[in-house]
Design goal:
By secondary structure, this protein is an alpha+beta fold. About 20% of the residues lie in helices and about 25% in strands.
Length: about 260
């Protein structure tokens, strides 16, 4: 290798190699990744490094050892890959579980195999906080545009809509004991219809308070956001047009203390 090559040379070479292997031009490859051709051009020229989400999508398109390189670059840890492929991450497609199918959450794209027994979803953990009542959340409205800090793997059965699935951090204790400060909630942004969310835990957004984690209730035609902690009064959202439902909470993760 040329010792004068820049640090970006490795990812540039990997991306070019993958695109050529797939026989795609820049526009076609960018479309497969659900990114713009301009973004791909910047990656291939070394001007900008791809996002973690883009790396996962490339790993889903790649074959054999190349997949592992892209997934690792995205932030999937060796321990994650070891659990996914017990024979070792060096060549996951030749492991004792060749029927695995990796689905990229946030894109809905997947790489299918001839026989599929088990599906895993690579879910982006966003650098975003949703506050509970009494704690402000981040003012990010479009989760698709949020920065990805890491990735986690989960069974596909837990993620009915991978294209809209992501993780956000919890700030505040108003949803305790069910959901605590510091927990990670997995959310589905395709499920945001108020008519189908009565009684469900959701993430809502307001321009003043940012993202809010709460239970959505409809009582006598009035829409409310209610916390698990009764010390906090319910918030009426129906009359305030600044409130928007962002996503339904599917499940959550609690890291050990």
């Amino acid at each position: 290798m040329d010792k004068h090559r820049s640090p970006s040379s490795e990812w540039v070479a990997k991306i070019l190699q993958l695109r050529k292997h797939l026989g795609l031009n820049q526009s076609e490859f960018a479309s497969r990744l659900n990114y713009s051709a301009m973004a791909l051009s910047r990656w291939e020229s070394g001007l900008h490094e791809p996002t973690a989400e883009a790396y996962v999508r490339m790993g889903n398109l790649a074959e054999h050892r190349a997949s592992n390189w892209f997934w690792t670059r995205a932030g999937l840890k060796g321990s994650d890959l070891s659990r996914m492929f017990p024979e070792g991450p060096g060549d996951p497609h030749k492991s004792v579980f060749p029927e695995f199918e990796i689905v990229t959450a946030g894109s809905g794209r997947k790489r299918s195999t001839a026989r599929t027994r088990t599906k895993l979803v690579a879910i982006p953990v966003l650098a975003v906080h949703a506050g509970t009542h009494g704690a402000k959340g981040d003012r990010v409205l479009d989760l698709d545009q949020a920065e990805v800090s890491e990735m986690i793997a989960a069974p596909a059965q837990w993620c009915p809509n991978p294209a809209g699935t992501s993780c956000v951090h919890v700030r505040g204790a108003a949803m305790s004991p069910a959901i605590n400060d510091g927990d990670i909630v997995v959310v589905d942004s395709t499920q945001n219809d108020a008519n189908e969310l009565n009684g469900k835990v959701i993430v809502a957004w307001h321009k003043a308070t940012g993202l809010t984690l709460s239970r959505f209730l409809v009582m006598n035609g009035i829409q409310l956001l209610e916390s698990e902690n009764r010390d906090y009064k319910p918030i009426s959202v129906g009359r305030d047009r600044n409130w928007r439902i962002v996503a339904k909470v599917l499940w959550w993760i609690r890291r050990p203390a």
